[in-house]
Amino acid sequence: MPNRVRYAPSPTGFLHIGNARTALFNYLFARSTGGTMIVRIEDTDIARNVDTGVDNQLDMLKWLGVTWDESIDQPGDYGPYRQLERLDLYKNVADTLLSQGVAYKCYCTTAELEAEKAEQMARGEDKYHYSRKCLHAPEQDKPYAIRFHVPEGQTYTFKDVVKGEVTFKSEDIGDWVMVKQNGIPTYNFACAVDDHLMAISHVLRGEDHITNTPRQLMIFHAMNWAAPTYGHMTLIVNDAGKKLSKRDGDILQFIQQYKDLGYVPDALFNFIALLGFSPGEKELLTPDELIAAFAPEKLSNHPATFDTQKLTYINHQYLKALDLATFSTYTTPFLDAAQITEGKSDEWINTLLSVFQERTTYGQEIVALSKAFLTGEYVWDSAMQALMQEENVNALLEAFKRGLESTNFTPDLIRDVMKESGKATGMKGKMLFMPLRIATTASMHGPELPKLLYLLGKDTVLNRLEKALEWTA
Q1: Domain spanning 382-472 has what CATH number?
Q2: Chain-centroid distance, C-alpha 430
Q3: Residue 248: what pLDDT?
Q4: pLDDT of residue 473
Q5: Which of 15, 101, 367, 399 could be 421's S-S partner, Cβ–Cβ 3.0 to 4.6 Å?
């Protein structure tokens, strides 16, 4: 049977970088092996569910380029794909485990459990284990949870495709709740049941889930089911080596934020795929190239550092490689919102885009780049002032100003006037282009000058040349 993998988000929030990586690696594995990708909605934490959580998870995965074969929007043979629609399935398994004596009813109230825990902590015990006071309790007409009876002296060992052999001892795990008093299954119970009933062959997930694995294996063993192959991906850490946290103010945490800032989805896909996966020396890879290179055995067992500079570099490369029309889709909405394009011709807008495409690292950034150029201060520093005192500079500026006054203001004609001004004054190379750039933009470096001057407009350029002539007289 082909491999079947799943991404199982809880709709308690929006798509986060860590969850996106889990989804992406499962997607790469499914596509690289001809397998099936499932998105299962684990919505049993009713109190914490967010109304738009499911929609955001699915929308952002699609935007990122992660697709699936079965889910709430693409039903298959293994549904339903929301856990709250699968309660009868969990009840059937729970009843089976109760009848086998592997599970039992626990009638303890929340207050009783809290008192029991406080008593154990007061004795200096570092872990709370349920006392099993209800293990042999008679049937009672009161609410109950269902607990799994963890066997004594049992060892749970599994081969993790990332971490190698992993072992847990049963004495480290107390009798845990499978089904809460309200009839809702807990995460570990529902997850194990679903993974079996949905025929999941491989579970690729974050390292923080590794301690859940023995509880899930208990269900597989008790029901005589074959367990899937597990792979626990290492943590994503910040520059300081600390686990990536929503409190890391320097790192954007949610995929929606990158979309809203004008990042290229393939670039983000590329970057996230490198968080714990090494396809080789090449860093810029298309989704198809990443699919071809992927294998769970290539997942790193060392923490993956979220390198913001690398993300900026990758997105910059993707933006530079776009044709102008596609680049426009990532930038023009921001220019429109900032009213930079108001009243401007398509030619002017396209010129602006072509000028700043090489410098833009994410879509919204083009606003700051444009404003800095179009409305920034016109001031010469000492190095500029020194160069502008060179011989013939004033004559060059005069010739350039006269030429611009009598020509249509297009990049091509501006370039022609620059050349003619150089010929008329004997200026060429650096001593032609540098004084003209300083005089018109108050800068010694920048994109193609004729296009910049066209963006500034004829009146602004002539006014600046007039000032420059006064300062160089």
Answers
A1: 1.10.10.350
A2: 44
A3: 74
A4: 83
A5: 399
The CATH number of 86-233 is 3.40.50.620
Each residue's pLDDT tens digit, 314-332? 999 999 999 999 999 999 9
Give the max Cα distance, the chain: 108
How far is the C-alpha of 348 from the C-alpha of 213, rounded, in Å?
59
- DSSP alpha helices (H): ranges in 146-205? 187-197
For residue 455, the model assigns a pLDDT of 97
Query: CA torsion sign, 294 to 295 to 300 to 304?
Result: positive
Give Cα 257 to chain centroid, integer Å. 9
For residues 407 and 413, what is the distance between their CA atoms, to the nearest angstrom?
7
Helix (H) or strand (E) holding 305: strand 304-305
Q: Supply φ then ψ for residue 145, to 5 degrees.
A: -100, 170
Look up residue 227 and give its DSSP letter. P
Residue 236 identity? I
- The four Cα atoms 434, 439, 444, 445 give a dihedral, to 10 degrees, of -90
CA distance 256 to 443: 37
Q: Which helix (H) or strand (E) holds 217?
A: helix 213-222
Question: In DSSP terms, which residues pair with 5 in a beta bridge?
Answer: 37, 202
Is 455 in contact with 446 (CB distance < 8 Å)? no
* Coil/strand/helix, residue 46: helix
φ/ψ of 457, rounded to 5, equals: 95, 150
- pLDDT digits over 361-401, tens only? 999 999 999 999 999 899 999 999 999 999 999 999 999 99
Contacts of 398 (CB under 8 A, 6+ apart): 469
Domain ranges of the chain: 86-233, 255-366, 382-472
275 and 306 Cβ atoms separated by less than 8 Å: yes
Residue 358 and residue 367 in contact, taking contact as beta carbons nearer than 8 Å = no
Q: Which residues of the chain have pLDDT under 70?
A: none
Interatomic CA distance for residues 261 and 257, integer angstroms: 6
CA distance 355 to 375: 16
pLDDT of residue 36: 98
Q: Could you tell me which CATH class the domain 255-366 is placed in?
A: mainly alpha
Helix (H) or strand (E) holding 423: helix 411-425
